[in-house]
Amino acid sequence: MQRFAFSITVLIWAAVYAGLKLLVSPPVPTSVVTMYMVLTVIGTLIFVAANEARFAHFVAPIRSVFTGEAPRAVQVVVLVAIPAAVAWVTYQRVVPSADAPFEARVVHPEPPASFPLHGKRMEVAGLANPLRSTGPELRKRIAEGKTVYFRNCFFCHGDTLAGDGHFAGAFLPIPGNFRDVGTISMLQESYVFWRVATGGRGLPKGATPWNSAMPVWQNFLTEDEMWKVILYIYDASGSTPRTWDEAVSHAKH
Amino acid sequence: MPQAKTAGADAALVDALKGTWKGILKISVLLVATYLAAQGLASVLNPADYRALPVLGNRTAVWIVAELHLMFAAFVLGVPIFAFITEIVGVVTKERRYDDLAREFTKLLAMAYTLTAALGCLLLVLLLVLYPKFTGYLSKLFKPTWALYVALIFTEVLFAYLYWFTWDILQGARKRWHLLLGALVNIVGTALLFVADIWVTFMMSPAGLDEMGNLTSLWAAINNHTWMPINVHRLLANVAFGGAIVAAYAAVRFLAATSAEERARFDWMGYVGSFIAIAAFIPLPFAGYWLGREIYQFSEQMGVSMMGGGFSWLWILQAMLIGSLFFGANFYLWLGMGRIPGAERYVRFQGPMMLVLTLGFIVWATPRSIIATGAEMTAMGGSHHPFLGLFGVMAAKNTAVNLMILTTFLAFMLYRRANRVPVVPWAATAKAVQAAAIAVAGAVVLYYGVYSYYVPSNVRIGFSVYQVLAVLAAMTVFVAIDIPMLRGAREIGAIRWGDIPARAQYGLFFLAIAFTWLMGLMGYIRSGIRQYWHVYGRVMDESAHAYTMTHGHATLIVSFIVLVFFALVAMVFWMAARHGSARAGA
Hints:
The structure holds two protein chains of two kinds. By secondary structure, chain A is mainly alpha-helical. Chain A has helices spanning 5-22, 30-49, 52-66, 72-94, 137-157, 189-198, 223-236, 246-251; strands at residues 114-117, 120-123. Chain A folds into two domains: 2-94, no CATH class; 114-249, Cytochrome c-like domain (Cytochrome Bc1 Complex, Chain D, domain 2, Orthogonal Bundle). Helices cover 50% and strands 3% of the residues of chain A. In chain A, helix 1 (5-22) runs antiparallel to helix 2 (30-49) and helix 1 packs across helix 3 (52-66). Chain B is mainly α. Chain B folds into two domains: 8-335 and 507-581, no CATH class; 341-494. Chain B has 20 helices and four strands. Chain B is globular. At the A-B interface, helix 2 of A face helix 11, helix 12, helix 13, helix 14 and helix 15 of B.
């Protein structure tokens, strides 16, 4: 096997690239393909270089091309292929495109210490859902939250809360998918309340507030309605809000 | 003759005391000069809450000096730990070369202490002059700790200089006294670190204050949320850092070596340095995770800001560096196995291990929010890829890093036994148990990694503890079996020290640079997440520099600090080498 170190390495690179391009759907963004390929190349090169015999076999064909020992045809192909590849990458980078540029959007920005709500200020620290209880009234509140959801949120976030409502396709970025483990299940209810109450306009600069269609719901809903709809989205998506061990969290304050 | 011997010993003792006295005098002069400079500037300058430093600006100047001070402090705390461990190994194994190695590095301390103290004094002057109000507030709050800190500095200097100057006197039967001095240097050094961490962590996660900001409990302010996690994290990082710097020094000397003996010596030194660095590096992610958890416990806002908000992109850089450290460590170990007769038995494991490391690195570095063009975002339905997005959350990262740790540990263990064949009758059973321990730990890590996606986040966080415990348990079982199993093992052949490719030395150099850059980067994140607060949520930073700079700008400053640090370290090494050759010449 060591004798074919160079060929196997190149085959691995080609296979990983083809796999990323052809087997994953939706297509993997170029930035990720580039990162994965760089790591694959580094990983394989480290593996090759970590053993003298393997390294010697790997370097031999490269050396033969540049010392003139390889067949003339191989030398010509390599010496044409390298500048051609560089030219192609350069062309791809400079060719005009109507596509929007890269966007380093912060999806879960930090909440502020406090935010305005119906003319008063809400402190985020220690904010908890006042309607969350364990009694039978919880089911009633969740049902009321469901009504609020389907009257207001359903059009964008969808009937299954997967961010695929009727209007979803018109927005970029699309509405949040509450069934995704990386959305509301990672967040405290206070965080979700802040996002619902202040909408896209309440986002800090790093999260590009101009690039969110989320309305400022405190302009349309009461405080109780917002807490109820939060109860509903956690219940309907089968997730629970992030909580902390309160005893530990506040013991030192 | 006995009289001459006694006279020689007395002269050596006098020299040792003189050297120690000079060291204490040097530190005293520095501290007095700092006090006078601060007092002088305070009386000359107009009273103000903040003052502006031209060109660099307040924050950048304090940042550069503070980070350099911290790096040198890590060096002068890490190297004695390294030296102490090496000295103990020398006593246990009765191999003189360990004692020589420990001695060689302790020699560097005198110069490094001076630089650390000078940078610390400069930092203090900068803080007093540029941030007088805030520095005054902090000094008043922690007055007793300042006195303790100064007392600890003098005690540390006293023990450290004695440790160095009595090296030749306290040999043989007196060696235990020298070891005691080494232990004291490290105990006092650790205490110094813990005291300095009080102020830093209080600024991050203040406690012990009432609503008006008055101190209600000094102990609560000291024992705040992040104090102990940072203490442990920094202590481990210092050991890793000290080992990495030693290994880099050895690498440079190896590359410049002109004889086979020199190459063998510095190859061995590089191995010992990297061994200690990587051994301390392996538990470091666990300590880091604890710190992150405490930050979230203290303030979700700060936690989100660090991991999900504006600073989250810097974690991609951190992931790249940590992954590179795993790559670098394994690369060095595998190349090192080339000089060990019998290691060829384990070459076949390198392929699967590299696969785990590369896949782990890929998962570890996958961002949650992917950089994508408009068309790519439309195809994905947002900035989260429905499949790759699974790698972007902590459940996947914890799984990846635990498997990478397990793999690197295994590489270490294979390296350790490469030229030995156990002769105990129960060796086959023992090896099977070791393999099972690794396999079970890997399975537990994977199981909880996958199961994490099906449970709420508060339960998920608990799973990371099981993953860590599984890995630690496997390591403990493995080592507990390995030690008795390899006792009296048959040696296949002697290690051919010096017979290692030059690229392995570049690997060691890379480890040191990556460690240093990581320290700078993580230091910036830790401090930067306070954003516009001096003391988070309590004392606001109202200076002109209370904004969060762009990541590009910040990383350039970190890079500059790393360059300056290595230039200064090179100077320390050069002066120590010059001093050594001058003494040899004399």
